[in-house]
Design goal:
The complex is a heterodimer.
Chain A (H helix, E strand, L loop, with lengths): L4 H16 L30 H11 L19
Chain B lengths: L1 H19 L11 E11 L2 E14 L3 E14 L2 H6 L3 E16 L2 E12 L2 E14 L4 E16 L2 E20 L4 E14 L7 E4 L2 E4 L5 E14 L9 E12 L4 E14 L2 E12 L25 E17 L3 E21 L6 E17 L1
Antiparallel strand pairs in B: 1-2, 1-18, 2-3, 3-4, 4-5, 5-6, 6-7, 7-8, 8-9, 9-12, 10-11, 12-13, 13-14, 14-15, 15-16, 16-17, 17-18
Chain lengths: 80, 371
């Protein structure tokens, strides 16, 4: 427990510093907006369109025991 | 000392995120229209139909969206033909959504209704997306509630109801000018009629109606990384994606999903998306292919068995017409192959039964426009 106390104090100080903008300078965003052109390219998307994601999510959800955290809103049964 | 430095770095990130959150404006989702024909064919089941989606923004702060999805199902799956008879039915699902920008936040409110002859589901959802840390970090908080009515052919009215609560938490982080990473956690709680009125379980070789618990709680954690791997100087962009999802629930199921994706521009206007997906799970606590003891809960639903599936997929998209800054129209075609294997769901006479397996094809073609 003693080992983590200094870490907690440093963390709390830095969070407060970030929130208030006081002496301790927070880390600045290191990828500037003009450097994000590659990230916005359609080739970076999982899927170009939205509807195929719903089909795909439904196909797997009704055939596997797992569900959730796919980023697609479910609905209905359509079982079997 | 190194630990303190790391803690300071992480805390500095959090502090920076809070400090920078007021300078980044979020964007509404783009105006778009999609129309799709989809088909699933595998294991004696064919599900197909059209789907449409339209989203339009107004006043620079609000976007309205609507969609309609049809599943026309012809079912002659192995559990249906061995314990019941082949059937056909249609599921219609409609959705309405509203996106609203407030300061640096994007709020999405949506509702959906899914109707089929023996099942109805109504869902309401709220999602809040916030860009922080100079736009390098995106945080998502979401909640959905759904009410289902479960029916049975030949029985008037409904045989039961079910209620679902979903909580979502997600973070997407820009790591470098080429790489992003994300973590998404979703918790789902269910209460009510969670079994199927049709499915039969096998106990001492005899078939009885399955019985499942009336509550279920699950969690899923998905970790993703996507990167631009285009060599310097190359014209055709390419990206690599790796996803892993771990799932666990109170029914005793643990699931692992691993997916790798590779996208590439083939030529001006042409985009290829490829992926390969692997999934495996262990069976639910009350699942049995042929129970040899009396149990309060018993099911032979093969989605709850020990199983795995695997398959590659590919999508090709072509830009039919593009007027930069005004609109573009694209045509896409997609194919996914899935190979399902069940370790403890068998077919054939008792004594010489074999583990069940089948493969499926998932296809769709989409005409889409952004404007």
């Amino acid at each position: 427990m003693r080992r983590f106390r200094p870490l907690a104090i440093v963390a709390a100080a830095c969070v407060l510093a970030g929130a208030s903008g006081c002496a301790i300078k927070p880390i600045e965003p290191w990828v500037k907006p003009y450097e994000r052109e590659r990230l916005a390219d359609p080739v970076m998307k999982t899927s170009l369109n939205e509807l195929p994601g719903r089909q795909r999510d439904h196909v797997y959800t009704v055939r596997e025991g797992s569900r959730g955290a796919t980023g697609v809103q479910g609905g209905g049964c359509g079982c079997n | 000392m190194a630990a303190i430095k790391n803690a300071a770095k992480v805390a500095g990130l959090v502090g920076g995120a809070i400090a920078a959150s007021s300078v980044q404006a979020v964007d509404l989702p783009e105006d778009r229209a999609e129309t799709m024909y989809h088909l699933y064919d595998g294991g004696g089941v064919i599900a197909q139909g059209p789907a449409v989606l339209v989203r339009k923004s107004m006043l620079d702060r609000v976007a309205l969206s609507g969609s309609w999805y049809v599943d026309a199902v012809s079912n002659a799956s192995i559990d249906v033909v061995t314990t019941a008879s082949k059937f056909k039915e249609t599921r219609n699902q409609g959705e309405l959504g509203l996106d609203y920008v407030v300061r640096d936040s994007l709020i999405h409110v949506g509702g959906s209704k899914s109707v089929e002859p023996d099942y109805q589901a109504s869902t309401l959802s709220v999602d809040l997306t916030q860009d922080v840390f100079g736009g390098m970090t995106t945080v998502l908080l979401g909640y959905s509630h759904a009410d289902d009515k479960v029916g049975e052919h030949g029985t008037p009215g409904w045989v039961g109801t079910a209620h679902h609560w979903q909580y979502r938490l997600g973070v997407t982080q820009i790591l470098t000018p080429r790489w992003t990473a994300s973590a998404n956690l979703e918790s789902i709680a269910d209460d009510g009629y969670l079994k199927s009125p049709y499915r039969l379980a096998r106990v001492f070789g005899s078939y009885i109606h399955e019985n499942a618990p009336t509550t279920r709680e699950s969690k899923a954690l998905k970790l993703s990384a996507t990167g631009d791997i285009t060599p310097e100087g190359a014209n055709n962009r390419r990206s690599l994606r790796a996803d892993y999802r771990y799932y666990w629930d109170t029914w005793g199921i643990h699931g692992h999903t691993l997916e790798l994706g590779y996208n590439r521009n083939l030529a001006p206007g042409w985009l290829l998306e490829t992926s390969v997906r692997y999934y495996r799970q262990n069976h639910a606590l009350f699942y049995s292919d042929n129970a040899s003891t009396q149990m309060l809960y018993v099911s032979r639903n093969r989605e709850l068995s020990t199983m795995h599936d695997f398959g590659p997929g590919a999508t090709v998209s072509y830009t039919l017409r593009s007027v930069p800054g005004r609109y573009d129209i694209k045509l896409s075609a997609s194919y996914q192959f899935i190979d399902f294997h069940y370790a403890d769901y068998t077919v054939g006479p008792v004594g010489s039964a074999k583990p069940y397996s089948y493969h499926a094809s998932v296809l769709n073609t989409v005409l889409s426009a952004t404007f």
